[in-house]
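Methods — Computational structure assignment.
A single polypeptide chain was analysed. Its primary sequence is given first, followed by the predicted tertiary structure written as structure tokens.
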Amino acid sequence: MKAWTLAAAAALTLTACSGKPSEGEAKQALADLMAQSASATVVMIDGFTLTGCNKADDTDGYRCDTRGTVIMDMAGNRVPLPVDKNLRYTKVDGTWRAYAQ
């Protein structure tokens, strides 16, 4: 039992050190980016996928293929905005942020 616990702890430590954002962290970062860009509230994100994350060569963070539909509340109307873009994710003050460039 003790060996299993040590192995599980080691696996979690290695996972935490992988560097790239988790899908949940990236989804929140995308929601924050869209809310700032559109000056509107994000209602939900449908079909979110994060693939192909690689360390960015030209700057800090990771570049990941990001797909999904962001549903925004714009003046009481729900507006679906499709996203199919390679975004850069970087950690700022302990929080993941998404950048379109």
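Note: The beta strands are 41-55, 62-74, 77-92, 95-99.
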